[in-house]
Amino acid sequence: MNTLVLASELSGRVVVTLGGEAVAQIKDVVFDGPAGRITGFTLSGRGLLAGPLKQSLRFSDVHAVGPSAVMIVSQALLEDRDAVVGRGEADRGRVLGAPVLTEEGTDIGTVADVVIETGTSGRVVGFEVAANDNLDRRHRKVFVPRGQSLAVSGEALVVPAQAQRFIADDLPSFAAQVEAFLTHTRQR
Amino acid sequence: MLFSQAFGLPVITADDATSVGKVADLTVDAHDATVAAVRLSGAADRAELAWSAVEAVGPDAVIVRSRVTAEQGQDRVPAHHRALGSRVLTEHGVEHGTVRDIAFDPVSGRILTLYTALGEIAGARLMGLGSYAMVVRADPA
Known about the structure:
Chain A is an alpha+beta fold. Helix content of chain A is 18%, strand content 40%. Chain B has a six-stranded mixed sheet with strand order 4-3-2-1-6-5. Chain B has a six-stranded mixed sheet with strand order 10-9-8-7-12-11, with no helix packed on it.
């Protein structure tokens, strides 16, 4: 299984071609909410004074998302900024900060971050949720797996009621919980 | 032979036995996993010799055929990026230390083994070498 990363951690990660050239760094992650995937990345130049780039990177053109770098085959794959951002924008709303509701209608907190599988899939596997009283009395941040269908809008994120039983406190143990949750949903 | 062993060797022509300089660095063709060229220090007229001009790399000297052949075949040499000390990334974006030394076949110029701070990598896994990193194929295991 691929390791998991928080979307926020991808910001600033260097983009490297398979030829060994660093061409940009990740600025923001663009989500496709309904599809439950990353659409792509907006980019900034490398270095302290570099500003945002007019180019962006479509996720389908990513060779791999790794712990040290995002790998692409060649610089020629970088596209016009609008090609990536334009399409995802309407659905994206603002995922971060959106209230999290269970399918039973309980408000369990707000979205703090998005958990993505590294490697070549770019799949959203769950969310970091800033819990409220209904989920955790101590208001910790916990990880909640996503459902098979991902219902997210700017207003709210809806997770399966069962997902509450598969929460985790940290990313390494979350990977196991995601697996367990998938197995659980397949059995039903 | 190791890159570090080749550095500093005098480069001598076979036809008139004169020195054209010393080996300063070796240019890697990452696409073919071969040594593409020998970079010279102390050279009067040119700084780079295509590998095709090299007759032999011995323990004490590098022999090139003649001054004339040394000037041929330079168009196909890829841009030079220093291999030793370069950061190593797998194609999956995982860092794998830095290049400490490289073993190459002194006859064919083929890159045999990359020695990194985190272990050895077969030369056949080499994918690219740029100004930021050396990129290698992910471990098949």
